[in-house]
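Here is one chain, start to finish.
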Amino acid sequence: MRIRSSLRRTLLVLAAVWLTAAGCQRAYYAMWEQVGKEKRHLLRDQVDKASSEQQKASAQFKDALTRIQAIYGFEGGDLEKFYRRLSRDLEACETRAEAVRQRIGNVERIAADLFVEWEREISEISTPGLRDQSRRQLRDTQTRWARLQRAMTQAEARMEPVLRQLRDYVLYLKHNLNAQAVGALQREAGEIEIEVQSLIVAIAQSVREADDFLKNFE
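Its structure:
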C-alpha cells in the first residue's frame, strides 16, 4: 500500500513538470500503467481538467471585468486602491491563462500519443470485422477530438488580446492616478467588455465540446 501511495506521489510530480522529451513521456505512461491507467484514461482526465481550468479562467476574467466596470461609477475616491486591486486581478488572469495553456498542451500531447498507439494496435488485429470496427471508432474519436481541439485553441487564443488590454489598462492607471485617467479609462472600458464577453462565449463553447467528447469517449 505504501509503495502504491509513493508511486502516485511520484506520478503527480512527473505530471507537474511534464514530459518534454520522448523518454520522459514513455516513463510517464509506463508509471501510470502500473496503477491501471492507460492513455485513454489519461486523456479523459486531462480533458476534464482542461475544461475545469477554462471555467476557472472564465470566472477570473469576469471578476476583472466587474472591477473595470466599476470605473463607470467612479466619482472620486482612492484610485491607488483601485489600481492595486485591478493589478491583482490582472495577475490572477495571467496565472489562469497560463494554467489553461499548460492543460491544453497536456491534452494535445496525450491525444497525439494515444492516436499513434491506437493506429499501430489496429494493424495487429487479425480479425477483419474487429479491425474495421476499431478503425471506425478511431476515426470517430479523432473527428470529435478535432472539434474539441479547435474550440480549446480558439478560446485560448482569445485570452492574450484580453490580457494585453488589461495590462495597458493597469499600466496607464499606474502612471495616471488622477481624474483625467478615470475619463480615459471609462472610454476604453467598453472595448475590454467586448473582448471579455467574446472570450467567455468561446470558453463556454470549448467546455460544451469537452462535455460532448467525454460523453462519447470510452
